[in-house]
Design brief:
elongated; mainly alpha; Arc Repressor Mutant, subunit A; 6 helices
Length: 122
């Protein structure tokens, strides 16, 4: 069938259909101002996530080198976020002794980190 012989409804040009599509799409979308998008942006970048993962991996290595009592004291308080009293009860030692063990664990970690920073190897 040829367009010349078409006697029904008038054929509308392509730009008219494109305008209709644009208007329909415009109804579905809701434009936002710049502050809206600034709130959506995450302050955490992939580089930051990588550095945090790397740091946690290094800390895991350091914690693995601690004596068992120090390792347990550090993990109970700093990782599992238990109080001093709860942690000392779990370990079966007095509160003051627990604080000493935790202090020693943190000091040992600092020393291990200094060693790595000084010579660059673990």
């Amino acid at each position: 069938m040829y367009l010349d012989s078409y006697k029904g409804e008038r054929v509308k040009p392509l730009p008219h259909h494109a305008l209709i599509d644009y208007k329909r799409k415009e109804k579905r979308s809701s434009p936002q101002e710049a502050p809206y998008f600034e709130k959506l942006q995450s302050k955490v970048t992939p580089e930051m996530l990588f550095l945090v993962k790397e740091r946690l991996y290094e800390l895991g290595k350091f914690i693995g080198r601690l004596p068992d009592k120090q390792k347990q004291a550090l993990l109970l308080h700093d990782w599992h976020e238990l109080s001093y009293a709860e942690s000392s009860d779990i370990m079966g030692i007095g509160l003051s002794h627990y604080k000493v063990v935790l202090y020693q664990a943190r000091q040992t970690l600092r020393q291990l980190q200094r060693e790595v920073n000084d010579d660059g190897t673990l």
